[in-house]
Amino acid sequence: MHHVLTPAARPDIVAPDGEAPDLKTDVVIVGAGFAGLYAHYRLRRLGLSLTGFEAGPDVGGTWFWNRYPGARCDVESLDYCYSFSPELLDEWRWSERYATQPEILRYIEHVAERFDLRRDVQFDTRVVAARFDEAAQRWIVETDRGDRISARFVIAATGCLSEPKPPEFAGLEDFQGSWVQTSRWPRETVELAGKRVAVIGTGSSGIQSIPLIAQQADRVTVFQRTPNYTLPARNAPIDPDHEARVRSDYAAHIARNRLSKSGTQSRLATGLSVYEIAEAERNAAFERAWDFGGAGLPSLYRDLVAELPANRIVSDFVASKIREIVGDEQTAALLTPADYPFAAKRLCLDTDYFATFNRDNVELVDVSQTRIERITAHGVQVGDREHPADLIVFATGFDAMTGSLLAMNITGRGGLKLKDDWRDGPTNYLGLMMAGFPNLFTVNGPGSPSVLVNMLVTIEHHIDWITNCIGHMLDKGIATIEPDRQAETAWSDEVQAVGARTIYPLAKSWYMGDNVPGKPRRFLVYAGGFDSYAARCTEVADDGYPGFIMSAPVPGDASTKKQAGETVM
Ligand code: NA7
Questions:
Q1: Top mutation candidate among 353, 396, 512 for ligand 1, by most atoms within 8 Å of CB
Q2: What is the distance between the alpha carbons of residues 67 and 84, in angstroms, rounded to a whole number?
Q3: For ligand 1, atom 3, which residue shows the shortest CA distance?
Q4: CB–CB of 382/223 below 8 Å?
Q5: d(CA 179, ligand 1 centre) in Å
Q6: What is the pTM of this model?
Q7: Does ligand 1 come within 6 angstroms of the Cβ of 343?
Q8: Which of 102, 337, 396, 495 places its Cα 20 to 30 Å from the Cα of 478?
Q9: What is the per-residue pLDDT across 172-201, written as a single tens digit (0 to 9) for each?
Q10: Ligand 1 pocket, residue 450 CB under 6 Å
């Protein structure tokens, strides 16, 4: 399923003069995960020529790469799917409340097949540079296969959690066993039986995989730098009654998702303050939420997450659950987050995570004070103890939100490099576009609601907005669009101000850039809720794109279709 585009393969395309690119296209779409594929679907309908690049050998993005044991979505299946096609919604049936990685990947493959979305994608190809040519008002995109493409628009559908942190431990080259990253888990079976496995990292990937690794491996040593809050998923086959209710009016269900803060609807939210409820009643409700499973607990009362004393009530409840489940008191204490509020780091959902530490073959090693010193030939050295291992699993996370964009070596107007422009942290307008980088759209970019929201909702929203924007430009004969600096600064300041009013800055997390050494500390997500964000984006488009600069085409450039040209400030 791989084809390479060459001028010979596209005789309709004429290379422009100058540094002749191999190919001229209307839009380069980087990535063929959920976002990239939907971009192909929508933009094809505008009649544009598309060229997609995907680093992996097939579609799937995040769900292609993260195939570690236990990888599963933490948004319910009936919500974590495309909504653009009623027929697709109707014909695809999910088997579980929370879909596994293989099932989600099968779904993405089905969508690619059904709508013929692989057609314009060149797989096994990574974009290594993108430079805006001001004279031609076009992007020159280069790949690791040596392609040079001239494109009018670039859509970075590159994912929020796509650039894994490299294992940052001295001595790895001396290790005589083998090692894997959860985010690059091999497609071949990784033999765990009879192995002593070291797992480094207890974020979502560690929390999902450790219980399954422990069922197969001989011994598991878990290295934990920071304990995480995690709630039982209570995954199960989809509840037929719930499914029937959703399907009885799926369109209305989706419409409600789109009008919500998080792109999903909690089945537990009461709308009440925790202080309006008597303690016994509240504790009973907490217990029911714990038993119901999923991420509903924090939504039970409206002030549980954002208000610190209320947050303390729910974090104490989770701590009591950990003590109840984990037999060894010291291990229970180590597994209990102590120095940051509930849900300030991304909340995890698990299946039997805490109970796994009751197994005889599992040991928890606290590396919060004494750090992992190095990897030795035979294991992991912490202080004066060497923990033997045959296999090391790095579940150490990603250079989130900005990593995959910066990895593309993007250069805008006047030779401005994105990595210099973002030296103090990312800035953009609406999380969609950067000043000085015309016609380059980011999907779920930093400063948009992205990871705080059901990503399928934000993906469809961003791609729809981008498609409408490009459609508007084609109609009006506009060559380029980019935000003005003032609008960019105002938006970026607002993202920080909204973030500062939340609990997120109170933890060290990838939301804040804390997990990557040297990364500036800055809140990377818009926390004002999807509903108000989407309304804002609609308003900007309806009002003729205030905050954006639009320019007329270069004389003689037929690719803009219409020559009218207008400037909108
Ligand atoms: P996360 O959530 O970033 O978790 C990474 C884990 O690895 C976390 O526990 C880190 O501890 C730990 N880590 C990272 N570097 C080190 C070093 N050098 N030493 C010890 N421990 C380390 O990534 P995930 O892949 O689990 O999840 C990412 C998201 O994907 C998740 O939130 C879901 O949205 C899906 P730390 O907490 O930084 O002290």
A1: 396
A2: 26
A3: 397
A4: yes
A5: 17
A6: 0.94
A7: no
A8: 495
A9: 999 999 999 999 999 999 999 999 999 999
A10: no
